Structure formats: structure tokens, C-alpha cells
Amino acid sequence: MAIHAEGLVAIVLFYVLILFVGIWAAWKNKNSGVSEGMDRSESIMVGGRDIGLFVGGFTMTATWVGGGYINGTAEYVYLPDYGLAWAQAPFGYALSLVLGGLFFAKPMRSRGYVTMLDPFQQLYGKRMGGLLFIPALMGEIFWSAAILSALGATLSVIVDININMSVVISALIAIFYTLVGGLYSVAYTDVVQLFCIFLGLWISVPFALSNPAVSDIGLSAKEAIYQSPWLGKIKPEDHWLWADNFFLLMLGGIPWQVYFQRVLSASSATYAQVLSFIAAFGCLVMAVPSVLIGAIGASTDWNQTTYGSLAPKDKDESDMILPIVLQHLCPPYISFFGLGAVSAAVMSSADSSILSASSMFARNIYQLAFRQSASDNEIVWVMRITIFVFGALATAMALLTGSVYGLWYLSSDLVYVIIFPQLLSVLFVKGTNTYGSVAAYIFGLLLRIGGGEPYLKLPPFIYYPGWVTVERVHHLTGDVEFFVQQRFPFKSMSMLASFLANVAFSYLTKYLFESGMLSHRYDFLDAVVSKHSKEIMDKATLVSNHDNIILSEMAPVRQALGATLAGTFTNTEVLSDDGASSPESFHSEN
């Protein structure tokens, strides 16, 4: 296949558009937030906390709507054994945004946090914050790598150019404008990204539907024509597996820095909630063309197309069904426009994850754990360096690791199993401490890893009830692979066990220390009787955009729960809609 000049021109045009918007956003907002006294580093992480409804609605929707979302939705609708019944991402992530808006956006935004890890470090200390950073970082990096990997697959359909080079160029563009403009560049390119996806796919759908090789998708939804109906079905033995995956998306989609990055940049707590609800609707709307394209792929006689006699599912190319439909069922100029738009959108999806990872590292690891006296300029440079490092790491993984999707599946499971129950505890459960947090971390990790991960060929060492051995055939090579499928909802069970372990061990250690059954000197984590240790008192001098404060300026709290860290994370000038300034004060109101 020769290089398609039209396709190359379309890609270049869309890439230039994304790059221009990213640089323009950085220039337009270069002094936003800083002129009001906000640190430059905080401005890069959360903008000037002045993101409005229009840009905010788009960028919040783009939290999940990107290359992986549209390609994955189309793939599952197309796959014969799954269909629309198993395309859970649209409803799962939409409900995730609704729940995030109802319960999590307001307490997080009203307390003026800068990253998702702030409340963990405030309540559990810097060491536990560092442990929780690991699954959060893995999730962001592997998500970026999966996006770039999908981009390479998409570009391979459009033009016969070096895939490695195209992925590297795409990553460099995203890294460049993120370095220059931080959250503002991410937010404004998200607006263009969603317009590109919406226009590119909707322009293509009518042409694909009218192709002579495509049967009536209404008929193929219920009857087998070229493959089983694309509506799909959930077998009785798979009900628990389906529910487990759905809860993973719905609840596991909340504790991500890419989401709270948008929440914390909103101009008020109420706006953060409204943006979450708008984004939930946007997720559903943006999934419609992907569902139709998956249905078109399932209704096509591929023998009548330029693709070849074998269907994509028989070539193990189901994951590329969206670009394949656009390439082979639409006129060339339409397919190039659609694929160019989607490619640019995929490229710009990686930016927010890279910014999220660097924000958490610069603030929660470098500044609060190691360099509490670091200047604002120093933090800015740490962010710039880590944006480049994490971007390069995600790019290398996309190019060199064949199991990048398996890594992302496992890391997203760990976010659900480890971080979500701890976020629940730190925001809504009174009295949890570092001992409970450590126990919850260990319980969740062991129970999830124990279930294995087929995509990584990681065998289980815990066989949950109902497990079966499944056969997977690789159509091109004829190789047969066997793996263990856990039909028991062990991911959700692991999450619940982690939550209960946090509560139980927190109250147990609190009782043991306060009753005198354990000597105070054994409180080596400073979690119960040593809340006012020098390490924690030092943190009380770190306020996001103020000079050192004195203890009399802080809200009175009970010593055992120790809210002396509230000043570390709370920017009092940005509080709105909610008077609570720390997890403890929030609990005491209830």
C-alpha cells in the first residue's frame, strides 16, 4: 500500500489545528490565576480555577471520551460473542460522572485541593500518599500508552508510513503544548478533540450505512446474517462477570486524577457538579456513532469490499473495526477526513493523563514528601521535566510493549480496588487512620492480583468460586491458548474487602492505643496518638498560595483526629458553597 497523500494531508491539517489551539490557549491564559496571587505551579495544575461551563463541559466529557473510548465501544459492538450488551463503557462512565458529581465533586472542590492525592496525604501522611501514588501513576501512564498504541493502529490503516515515527511525533506534539500551557492547553484542545470526533464520525456514518456491502443494521441486530446479532446477549453464567465489569467502570471511573483535575479547575463547587452531569450526557451522545459503526461492521459482507474475503474478526483485527469501516466502506475523501479527525483526537487524549501524573508527582511526592521548602519556580520545572519523562515513558510502552492494554486493564482494576475505597474512607468515614489505610492497600492488592490477569498471562493463585478454563483461538496462526476466567465478581469483592479492612483496622488500632493495651511508643506511623509529631507539624506551614500560617488561624479540631494538615492543602480564597476545609471537619458536621 502506497502512502495516501490525501490521508497524510488530512492528518497534518488536524495535527496543526490541535497544536495551534494548544499554543493559543497557553498564550491567552499565561497570566490567569497568577495575577490573583495563585502560584504558577498551581495554575498549571488546575488553571486559574476559572474554567466555565462551555470549555469545562467539553474537557470534562473528554475525561473518558477519546481514542480508546470510541475504538473500544465500536469493537465490543462488533465482536460476535459480545455485542452492544457488553459495550459497557458509555453507560458505565456516564454513571461514574453522575456519581462523581453527586458525592465527590463538591467536597473535593470546596476544600480547594490541588490534586486527588491531597486528602490522602492530609489524613494518612506522606508515606501513605506515596503508596497510593503508585496505582494512580500506573493508571495514567498505561492509559496514555494505550491511547498512543491505538493511534498507531489507526494510522496504519490510513497511510503506509512508519508507525513508530507517527506515534513519536504525535506524543511530542501533545507533550509540547502541555509543557507550554498546562491545564488550559489540555482543556481547549479537548474542545477541538470532541468536535473532531463528532464531525469526523457523523460525516462518515451515512456513507458507510449506504454502502452496498452493508445489510440493514436493524435486521442484523436481532438476526444472524454474517455473524451473530450485534445487540448481543448476557448468558446466565456471565451475569456476575458482567456486573463486576460494570461496577468497575461506574465506581472505578471516579478516583482518577484526570477527573478531579477538571473538578478542581472549576470556578466553584456547584460548577464542578454541573460539569460532571453535562459530561455524563456528553459520554452517551459521543458513543452513538461508535455503536453504529460497530453495528455496520457486524452487518457487512467483507467479501464485497476492498478489505478482503475474511472479516476483521477472522484476522484478529476486531480492535481496529472503526478505522477499517471508515477506510473500506466510505469514499476516500470522507474516510480521510474521518480518520484524520479521529487520529488528531486520539493524539490529544494523551495530554491530560500525562499532566495528571506530573501534577501528582510534583506536588504530592516532590513538594510535600521531599522538598517542603521548594520554591514555586522549582515546582514548575519539576512539572515540566516529569511531563516530558512520563510522556516519553508512555510513548516507549506504546511502541515496545505488546501487552499495553493488559497493563492498563490491571492498573485500572487497582485504581478501583485500592484507591476508590480509600477515597470513600477519607471523605465520608469518620476516624480512619494510616494503619487502616495500609491494611486496606494490602488486602485489595492481594485479592486482585490473586485473581490473575489473562491479558498479561498472569496466572491466578486464588481460584474464586465459579472459575472456568476458557479456550482462545488465534485465527491467523491457529494457536490455541487456555486461560482461567474468574466468573465470580472478585474485583468488586476485593474493593469491598479493602474498604472494610480500612475501617476495621483503623478502629482496632485506635482502640488499642487509646485504651493503653498498646504502648504509645508503638505508634510508629504517627496515626493515632502521635498526630502532632514534628513531621506533621512541619506540613502545617505549607499552604498552596500563602505564606506560613500560625496555628490560631486554623479551625479548632480534636487532637486524636489531627486536622493540622488542613492548611497544607486548603486554599481558603477558593472555598465556595461548602464551609468544610478538611475531611475531619466534614465528618464532624454529620
UniProtKB/TrEMBL annotation:
The keyword Glycoprotein applies. Its main location: membrane. Keywords: Glycoprotein, Ion transport, Membrane, Neurotransmitter biosynthesis, Sodium, Sodium transport, Symport, Transmembrane, Transmembrane helix, Transport. The keyword Kinase does not apply. It is a multi-pass membrane protein. PROSITE patterns: NA_SOLUT_SYMP_3 (PS50283). The chain crosses the membrane at residues 6-27, 48-70, 90-108, 129-151, 163-184, 191-209, 240-259, 271-296, 333-358, 379-400, 406-428, 435-451. It comes from the Eukaryota. It is found in: Presynaptic cell membrane. It holds the Pfam family SSF. One of its GO terms (molecular function) is choline:sodium symporter activity. Belongs to the sodium:solute symporter (SSF) (TC 2.A.21) family. Homooligomerizes at cell surface. Interacts with SEC14L1; may regulate SLC5A7. High-affinity Na(+)-coupled choline transmembrane symporter. Functions as an electrogenic, voltage-dependent transporter with variable charge/choline stoichiometry. Choline uptake and choline-induced current is also Cl(-)-dependent where Cl(-) is likely a regulatory ion rather than cotransported ion. Plays a critical role in acetylcholine (ACh) synthesis by taking up the substrate choline from the synaptic cleft into the presynaptic nerve terminals after neurotransmitter release. This is High affinity choline transporter 1. It comes from Fundulus heteroclitus. The lineage of its organism: Eukaryota, Metazoa, Chordata, Craniata, Vertebrata.
